[in-house]
Every structure is written in structure tokens, then in C-alpha cells.
Batch of 2 targets.
Target 1
Amino acid sequence: MDKKLSQIDFKDFEKRKRAAFVNSLSGFKSANLIGTISEKGQSNLSIVSSVFHLGADPALLGFIIRPDISPRHTLDNIRQTGFCTLNHVNEKIWKKAHQTSARYPEEVSEFDACQLSEIYVDDFKAPFVAESNLRLALKFIREVSIKENGTHMLIMEIEHAYLDQQFISESGFVDIEGLGSVAVSGLDSYHKTSRLGRLSYAKTDRSPSVLSEK
Amino acid sequence: MDKKLSQIDFKDFEKRKRAAFVNSLSGFKSANLIGTISEKGQSNLSIVSSVFHLGADPALLGFIIRPDISPRHTLDNIRQTGFCTLNHVNEKIWKKAHQTSARYPEEVSEFDACQLSEIYVDDFKAPFVAESNLRLALKFIREVSIKENGTHMLIMEIEHAYLDQQFISESGFVDIEGLGSVAVSGLDSYHKTSRLGRLSYAKTDRSPSVLSEK
């Protein structure tokens, strides 16, 4: 059965090539825009591909911030205010979303520079992206320092979720493909998806069956 | 521009519905099979959707283990041996991969129960999945307790990567779509992907362009 795959010695790759390669290895990644505002009122928007599910009760997610690569503004603002928004990147805004990773100076809002619409909802202390079809209001819980490489993992609690209810099934599943959300691979590749199927909860005495519920 | 999305009060959802809902919110997830073996020689295979990129140099990735939901065997084996493998789930094995989440007793190997082929390469102390087109040999670095919900984040270093070299571009990008890797949404939905495009490194003075390199 072995396809005799090659062992790739990436440790000798030149720095940029190594970054592109290693960033590809974990599999498909989420594509999200993190919206924040400083205490002085300067908004910031930053694309991140490291958001992951941490738990459902309490509703927690985590993401990684690299102070040396991504602008520190997102991290600074979350530390200052204790809040941020998370907005799914979709097929209509993926290029604008990617552009937020350019190194704009602190006094420039990526909302303006990348032509994405900044909105404030229900007095929440961070800006949402109007063009996103799934938006979350997140509260800062804690940060964990990853001493191995100087990055920070932020643990955030989901306070509110905003989306069109027709994309939520009876069982709670959200059709993020229907919402147009995209996936990322590597540093710069964006993908739309096409569902293979949903599978029943796995039991030891039977094979999984494809769910009919959308 | 606001589409007047509804605020969803998921905190009142029944437990299973809440889990399905919150698991959908972080966006698309990677689909990986973690292979381990106990000191006594009992192999184990477990699907995880929480693997995320942590850094390229050193080459690190992380994932979350929930001892109360997923069998502890994966966590126990990694603590015992210090190693595991990570194998991308692809379009040919997604149903078998899902089936590894059933609660098999400790003495049953999910490789056998789910009909996936267990192989050992280069004396590495954990089993790989022969049917996977991208396989990593991982070394345990450290675990971080997430006290908010009793889960564990494992920090792992990538020692070796195995894949067909024709899917690695000049720049280091790996075409995981070409390798057949799939994405997950929610608890049980599997997706193949279709590339929108790769974008150039974002600069403040220009819009991103679509890269011609595949």
C-alpha cells in the first residue's frame, strides 16, 4: 500500500521557502479577519489563518499571533480593550482580506486601506466587517506564551454570533460553505469548498452513514 | 452594507446542538489522523480537526486533545513514547478516518477496526497511515493545560515530512489540494476544495496579484 513517498529535508531550505513549506503541512486552515480598536480609537483589521476550536462550553477558540511578523497592533489592542471581532473571509472578499497582511503604519486602518466596511454593533468594543457573513464578538480570556518561538496563543470566549439563521440546521450545524467561507493553505492559497458529505456520529458496531440533513 | 445578520443566542442551546454550533464557528479545519503506539506495542489512530501551524523555524504545530471526549489513548501514548505521526485525511479515506472517532476499547487498534494500513518507516516510533499522501513524523515538545475546559494543547516539532515531491513548488508551497487533502467543518462535515488562487505577498503600495505558480 505504501506509495514510497519521499522524505523531504526541509531543514536545509532557505528561510522563505521553509516558511512556505512548513505552513503547508498542517492541512487546510480557517480564514478569518480579526477586528480591533485601540483605546485612542484607531481601528485595525488583520487576517489570521491560525484560529482553532478550543471548546463548546464555555465557547472558546484560540489563535496565534506572531509579534515579529504580523503587526503587533492586533495584540496591543486586545490587551488594551479585552475584545476583538472575528469575521469569516468569504469568496467575495478574499483578495481584500489578504491585503490586510501588508505592513500598514499604526495610524492607517486596514478597513480603509483595503476597502472593507467597518461597523459597530450593540455597543461592542471592536469593529466588525460588514461584508462577512459570519461574525463573532470575542472576549479576551488569557494569553499563553509559546516560548519555543516567541509567539502568543490568545484564548478568547465567544460572546455573540451573527449570521443568517437559514444556514443553521436543526442539529446546530452551520453551513459555512453555504455562507461562502473560504479555506487557506500555505501562506497565500485560498480555496472554496464542495461538500463530500456529513457523517453520522461514529459507533464501534457500524460504519458511518451519510447524513441527509444539509 | 450590513446584511442585518441575526444575533444567535447559542448559550441556551441543548448540549449536543451547542457543540455542533460552536464547532462550526471557527471556520474550516484541517483533517488529520494521529498515529501512536503504546510502550506495550498497542497502536492507536485518532482523527483530529484542531491541528494548527505554530511556527516554521523550529517547525512546530499544535493540536488540542479532549480527554473526556476523544479516547485518552492518543494522549497517553504520546506522553509515554514522545512521538506520534500526523497523516492528512484525503478524499479516498474520509469515511474510514471519521470512523476512528468511535470509542473502541484500548486493546483494539483503529487501524484494524477502520481498515487503514499501519506502516512503520525509518525506525520512527509511531505508525503512519499508508493511504495518506502527506505524512509527518512528530516529536513531543511540551503540553499546555487549558484550565478553562480541561483540554490539553500539545506542541509538537516536525522531524520529517513524507510526500510526493512533484506537489512541492519552487517556492516551497505544497499543493495539498492536489494531494487530495480534505477540510472539515463543524463536527462531521467533510469538504474537498477548489483553488480560488494564490496571492502575492501583500505590500502597502499595491493590490495583491494572483500568482501564476501552481
Target 2
Amino acid sequence: MNFDDLMANRRSVNFFDPEKEVSEELLRKTIRTAAMTPSGFNLQPWSLMILRTPGDKERLKKVAWNQPKVTEAPVVLIVLADQEGWKEGHPFVEKVFNEMVKSGAMVEDQRQWFADARGSLYGESAEKQQAFACKNTGFFAMSLMLAAKSFGLETHPMDGFDLAGVRKEFNIPDNFWIPLLLAVGHVKDDFEPALPKWRKRVEDIVVTFD
Amino acid sequence: MNFDDLMANRRSVNFFDPEKEVSEELLRKTIRTAAMTPSGFNLQPWSLMILRTPGDKERLKKVAWNQPKVTEAPVVLIVLADQEGWKEGHPFVEKVFNEMVKSGAMVEDQRQWFADARGSLYGESAEKQQAFACKNTGFFAMSLMLAAKSFGLETHPMDGFDLAGVRKEFNIPDNFWIPLLLAVGHVKDDFEPALPKWRKRVEDIVVTFD
């Protein structure tokens, strides 16, 4: 499928068929494909919790506005954005720097420059930390939705949940924001795709300030 | 190209050929494709400024760490995330609600429910407003990069800029965060794509907290 068809055919699906499983293999392939997403300084500040059991999904549903799709979808992902994923000493920050040195993209002497750049761009204020975490994890989540669709899966990104409630229920550490939940599964056989929702035209998106 | 090949072949390109133009038609097609991106309550809180002239790109380069690609790329987009794109009375919020009523997805009586939901999810704190703006605009920017690649264009998402400086230089109103700049163009004929950078494995991405 061409990319523009993929974009045009993706829908946020409200009704999943609970009988149609998502294999572990297909889910891993989806995540592996989305893992190629770019990020600021390649820091990849995203993580996923995978919920599959009826018990876990019931626990989530109670803090997610009781949305039926939380338990109907075979898989629900809690998407996490690491607000500290830029800090010196963070294991993935160390890994990213070491890999850059290994590939020749940076040299060891740039360690302090790299730390200073991350600090000024991402760490200087709460608003910068949140932008870093949520923008990059937004990139990743979009890739996940498109990868899923390209492999025959449907998704629904959900904002309707109690963030503090989800954090507490699943023991999610404070450094993670929860930008969205993502239901993943298949539609029922009698599913009729809705027309696309209204979208801004190019003229609405492009702005000038004079 | 299959979606996984598209993901595997996209690179953040550092060297653009300034001689190879990006037609207005192709740029509009790219934006139109990315406009199908989903967003919380379909609010689409993203905008773009399009910079094409040497003068505009020079002005941007000065507040973007003097990165040569800012002037070498034929097009640079300033990607904007509207922190107020959830508020009652915002023109696109009104439009989205009216279109939902028109399509039968909501009824007129849900106006207050819709306003309350947006307020509690996106407006309750500075951190929620920032997450709303940057996550959704992150979705959109990822779609832009992939749409561009699918149409034969290359991109580079840039974080290396002075946000306050860009805001001032281009009269960008305070309600917009600037999550990234996006260089768009073509590579030079002798371009050799680098190997993909290191990426987290599925095992690195999936987390549990017990």
C-alpha cells in the first residue's frame, strides 16, 4: 500500500473483535518497525507497557473512563514518555553516546558538549522537559499506529484516562508522562469504516505572522 | 515501498543539494497527506511556517546554531504546536465540534461535555497543555517526515535552535510552542546514506513495574 493510502485508510477504531488475537510475533514486528523512529539526538525517550490479560485490562478500564475498547482490544499499550531521558547518567543516554562514538558520529571529547546541549535544549525548564518527552514519543506513537496498520492491525489512540490513576494502578515511576494509551487489534467482520473526520486543509495549516 | 522499508530507509539527512528545488505542488501534497494524522478529539493543534527565500533562511540560521542545512535545504518548516488548541472559542475547536455534530459523531447538547473533557484532559495544568500540543504535533511531524520520504524527499528534524530567538525573529505568538524545525529537500548526487543509528530493541522498549 502506498503511504498516502496508508494514511487515508487508517482509522481510530472504536470496536475491536475480542476474539481476534494479535500474535506476540506481529506485535513485536510492529514495535520493531516503529523503533526506527527518529528522535532528538537519537535519545528515544519512549517505553511501552503491554497489557493483554483480562485482569490487567479491567484494571486499566477503571481508570480510563470505562471505555469498552480497553477490554475489547486484545492488546492495549500504555505509552510512556521519559521526561528524564536526556539526563547525564541515564542508561540510554550513555548507550546513545557510546554508540555515536563507536560509529564515528562523535568523539569522546564531545561528552561535555553533548551533556550541555541536552541540558539547555531539554532540561532547562519543566516545559522543555515535557516537550522533549512528548514530542519524541509522539513521533514514536505515530510510527506505531502506521506500522500496525501496514501489518493489518487497527489501533485507537486514547486520551480519555486519569493519568494519576493509571500511574498509581500500574506503579509507573514519576519520570514517565503518559501521553496516550493505544488499543491494538482487529475489527469485527461486519465493520464498516467511517468516512474520515474533517481535517484542516493546507491553507488552514500554513500560517504567516507579519 | 512497504511501510517497514520506508521506516528503514528514512534518514535524517545533513547535507541537502541547494540546487534541487522542492515544488510547491509536492510540498502541498506532503502536507495534505500528513494532514490525515489523528489527534486527541481531532483537534489538530499544529501549524507550519514555510521558509523558502535565502533571506528568511538566513534569519532562521542565525537563531538555529548556524546549521548549514538551514540555508542549504530548499525548504525549512517551522513546526508549531498550539498550546491553546483545546480552548472554548478557538476557531478550530469550534470547527471540529460543528463537523462532529454534522457527521452525527456528537450532538449539539454535548457542547458542554466536550468543553469540560478538553479542559480536564488538556487545560488543567501547564504540563497537560504542553503534552497536548507537543504529542499531537509530534504525530503530525512524524507523518510529514514519512510522507516526504514516500514522495522522494528527504528531511531532517532539528532541535538545535534558540526557541525564544526563533519566536522573536518570526513574530510567533506566545500560544505556539516550537517543537522542531524540519529541513526538506533532496540529497546531492554523490550522497551515501549512513547506516541507521543504534536503536532500542523491543526488549529495551517494553517495560514492566512490579
